[in-house]
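Example 5.3 — 2-oxoglutarate dehydrogenase E1 component
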Amino acid sequence: MQESVMKAWWDSSHMAGANAAYVEELYEAYLEDSQSVSEPWRQVFDNLPKVDGVELETNHSSVKEQFRKLASLGPAARMSGGAASEAVSDERQVKVLQLINAFRFRGHQHANLDPLGLWKQARVRDLELSHHSLSEKDFDTVFNVGSYAIGKDSMSLGDLYKSLNRTYCGSIGAEYMHITDTEQKRWLQQKIESVEARPEFSSDEKRSILKGLVAADGMEKYLSSKFPGAKRFSLEGGDSLIPMLKGLITEAGAAGTKECVIGMAHRGRLNVLVNVLGKNPSVLFDEFSGKHDESLGSGDVKYHAGFSSDFATPGGNVHLALAFNPSHLEIVNPVVMGSVRARIARRSDDNNRVLPITIHGDAAIAGQGVVQETFNMSQTRGFAVGGTVRIVINNQVGFTTSKIADARSTQYCTDIAKMVQAPIFHVNADDPEAVQFVTKLALEYRNKFKKDVVIDLVCYRRHGHNEADEPNATQPLMYQKIKKHPVTREIYTDQLVAEGVLEEREAKKYLEDYRNALDHGACVVEEWRPMTEHSVDWSPYMGHDWDTDYDGKISLDKLKELGEKITTYPEDYKLNSRVNKLYQDRKSMITGDKKLDWGMAENLAYASIVQLGHDIRITGQDSGRGTFFHRHAVLHNQGDGGVHIPLQHISEEQGEMEIYDSVLSEAAVMAFEYGFATAEPNCLTIWEAQFGDFANGAQVVFDQFLSSGEAKWGRLCGLTVLLPHGYEGQGPEHSSARLERFLQMCADHNWQVCVPSTPAQVFNMLRRQMIRPMRKPLIVMSPKSLLRHAMATSTLEELAEGKFHNVIGEIDDIAPENVKRVVMCSGKVYYDLLDQRRKNEQTDIALIRLEQLYPFPQEECAKIVAQYSHVKDWVWCQEEPQNQGAWYCSQHHFWQAIPDGAKLTYAGREASSSPAVGYVSVHNQQQKALVEDALTIK
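Solution (predicted structure tokens):
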């Protein structure tokens, strides 16, 4: 419609002048649903010109501006009686559509969510008829319902209002209008509104739900009577979780899922273990009685335990894996996601084959930062898993904190999920059918849109934080209410009896049968099946010693061939000038014209590993380039921004090579990689800190998972952690990877701590991690300045040797019999000592490098030390302050290594509360002093 034509129509219309605001509302309704406005108006809007050739929906503000402009072109037209009638009708129609949208947006705020009835929701005027200039007098008037997916084009206002309240203000509070994707919103509306959030369940389905509630309640009461006062973190109050999980797994299996990985903290864990995963109750009772299998290592408390089983579904057996989880609650979420990512990669098929399920507490999901980190990862290239079903056991109290003003700064504990536009379904846990409905809906949404979805299971906690607590001391009103409140099983039993689905005697028999099954100690899950080959076989990596022989040699020809592969890129690629220079240098290293630097040796190691058929996965905040500009495994075309990874083009049969710059996170990303490595032994999984110091952001992962996971849970893991470490005067947060912390956690041969000092060493260290038939974490104090240090180079022959030397002895021509002092050290300080000793022309001091500090290489060290058996003056030299580094934690190993009767002294910085000084001049003075101290024979 041309502007002149539009003006003519406008001038003759009853909608000119002051009615422009109404037209804007009408236009908004048209954009929401074109069928919601009358035919004349629809024709007008259909014929509006596009703005710059773009559809109206994305530019409606510009079109509205045209209405305002046209309204100012002439006086308001006189309205005839008929026209006035049409205007009033259209205006009310718009108000009705706005009412529907109000319920979609804010109906959840008036939903019946709290089983205890304690929630006092603020009045929401948007949900009142009067707010939309409507009243009960309009109840008999029939209106077009637009996109309201009830299956009717029009309804009386009275019926519509009742329907909206049933759909959005019943036992389910659906939040999804924050989602910007129209297709997703429309899909959810159709699913929810078409059944008014109350689908029909068959009698068999209802009986199945009741059996789940009987099991949930029966398990807790049995434990309470058999082990009174024992900690079990009871599920009571959130009983609907059991039929909910069983229903979720059953539906997932029917949709093609083959594996479910579940992560949860303490609340209800024992119940889930027995009533969902099928753990034998007699085994659990033995654990309560204190029985312990000596072969299981240090073990862990019952409510941290994991478990695996198979679960029968209409689509075949589904393998269930409940992840082990320490008391650090939400940290298990990225671990689960990492495990799922590995399983998806192994299956090489649709994400729907592996389903992650995470179960949260209401206080924890709102309070712990790793939740935000995990949500932020959920749609990124390197960490996406096709969406996670997240379930919140919302007790409405965290330990002793129940006031929202103390627990969080948002209305709901689940508001954090809005950052990724995840739909959130709040549901009253005392309405198990509503719980089943949102569970099925959540799974369908996740499978269709590959995004996270959240179910907020609003319940209560029948006891205190644990069974020894007295909750009345801090929540008196809540617990007075809870004491009188019937359990969900009783509520649902009464409902089914009233519906005629079953008789009371049948419900009692369910209770008796379950109690008898527990008495007999047999599995109580009908769907439980013995495990088949759903997971990877770890047996080849078990039972090996550290000194297990392996063949790590590689021919020079193969090294040169691999070198050519990793320095080749498309001819039309325009590299950054510095990167181009680096790649030209690498070509010279292959021909022997230059010695190999760190970056070239590292890339050669990766090439040799994938060429053997192993996969590699590297993540970190700068992993593609390398924080210190050394790796450049990912090339960026300066012309079009294209990406090329030479390591992905080694051979047709090579293993997968993945390298991702991660989100700016330490805790979640490293936990993800831990989960990945525990699920895939055939992959060299590497997490690299930007600076080693930053790893302290993931300290809980080191403390609770990586260092002790094998001892506590028997979980093998081959994760490699690269922590840039070295004192170059860059200040407290860019010097120390806190070596002492890792050494302090060393015991039971739980992991390796290495400080490689040459390119050949890093090459063979990385290869050893995959070729040797054992999987233990590898902690590497990796270098910064050594990446381009003139003395830190290697030859192809040294790489080809195929051995990582745990200890390296003297390399200069110094006669052992002339040595009066031996200096032992690790890492970069070795080159400072070597350089100064050569300048001093000292021939009576020998240098020994310890490249692996744990497990301490006692035998290898003894062979090198033997030639200095006459030396009584031994020194340990380190860059770190005296109370840090290896001195305190490894000193007992040093004493054991040196000859009997010898004296061991320390050369290094004085003890300090800070890892390093912040001034370069002070750093240089300290560095010079500690080198002089180590090389001065007194």
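Remark. Residues 1-18, 51-58, 69-88 have pLDDT under 50 and may be disordered.
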